[in-house]
Specification:
The structure is a single chain. It contains six helices and seven strands. A seven-stranded parallel beta sheet has the order 1-7-6-5-2-3-4, sandwiched between helices. β3, α3 and β4 form a beta-alpha-beta unit. α1 packs across α6, α2 packs across α3 and α2 packs parallel to α6. The longest helix has 16 residues. The protein is globular and about 40 Å long. The protein starts with a strand and ends with a helix. 44% of the residues are buried.
Length: 157
């Protein structure tokens, strides 16, 4: 829907009441020369005080980085819960009003964003996802890292 610069994305995330960060397995695989994508996911979760639904072993790394509200969840299951009239997942007491995806391939993030119902979506990737309510713009990996640095800085303000 709309491409947002990192500072705008931070403002968008901070404007929402119930945000759930969805961390995919690429969090443990994308390395920006010594800093993993999971480091950014942990910074985002900690600075914005967000619960995290993490795929696979990603939850272990996030907990090791100080994320206290993280649980192993299947992304498709969380998205499926958005289609139901009542929120049934114990990671959050209330239905999220925003799902934020990080650490998913561009195809997976776009598909998950498109499938979510009754919730806004944001994709924090290096490929613009038009299916999401908002997304970071297309970027090289070095620009993507700069976007994440700016985003985490803006979330801390």
């Amino acid at each position: 829907m709309s491409a947002k610069q990192a500072s705008e994305m931070a403002s968008f995330i901070k404007s929402k009441k119930n945000v759930l960060l969805m961390a995919g397995d690429l969090c443990d695989k994308i390395d920006f020369g010594g800093k993993l994508l999971s480091d950014y996911a942990a910074d985002i979760a900690n600075k914005a005080k967000l619960p995290v639904a993490a795929t696979g072993n990603t939850v272990k790394g996030l907990k090791a980085k100080g994320v206290t509200s993280a649980a192993h969840k299947y992304a498709a299951e969380i998205v499926d819960f958005t289609k139901e009239s009542e929120w049934r997942d114990p990671i959050m007491a209330e239905r999220p009003d925003l799902l934020v995806f990080i650490g998913y391939s561009s195809v997976a993030a776009a598909g998950l964003a498109a499938a979510a119902c009754n919730v806004e979506t944001a994709v924090l990737g290096n490929v613009y996802a038009e299916q999401a309510t908002c997304s970071l713009p297309d970027a090289s990996l070095s620009q993507y890292q700069q976007n994440l640095d700016e985003l985490t800085k803006a979330l801390g303000n």
